[in-house]
Design goal:
Number of strands: 11
Oligomer: single chain
Radius of gyration: 13 Å
Shape: globular
Structural class: mainly beta
Strand content: over 45%
Largest sheet: 7 strands, mixed
Helix content: under 10%
Order of helices and strands: EEEEEEEEEEE
Distance between the termini: 37 Å
Length: 125
């Protein structure tokens, strides 16, 4: 499985961005996909995740009500719509996937097997 994240950039506080994650390779086995971010000097943290089986979604408390995860199976692409961005949302955003059907915590990086290269999101005035 190969993942390609895109859509990052510089945005002012209160602005919006949409990240995309294109999946290729042996993707029929993917069970859960997620978005993670890593700010300078901090550990990678889970932002949001979506089940490819039933569409169930999950969000970190810090982004609930502002971010929306979705997927387009026909395009093998996952999205993260980010609204009302704050300076603390700044970081490198990674998409990830796992084909294990026994995921205990979809916002935990260690659950995932496949990672994209990351796209930088900078929220600053």
């Amino acid at each position: 499985v190969q993942l390609q994240a895109s859509g990052g950039g510089l945005v002012q506080p209160g602005g919006s961005l949409r990240l995309s994650c294109a999946a290729s390779g042996i993707i029929f086995s993917i069970n859960v996909m997620g978005w993670f971010r890593q700010a300078p000097g901090k550990e990678r943290e889970g932002v949001s995740a979506i089940s490819n089986t039933d569409g169930t979604t999950g969000y970190a408390d810090s982004v609930k009500g502002r971010f929306t995860i979705s997927s387009d199976n026909a395009k093998n692409t996952m999205y993260l719509q980010m609204n009302s961005l704050k300076s603390e949302d700044t970081g490198v955003y990674y998409c990830a996937a796992v084909d294990d059907d026994d995921v205990n915590n979809a916002l935990r990086p260690s659950e995932y097997d496949y990672w994209g290269q990351g796209t930088l999101v900078t929220v600053s005035s």
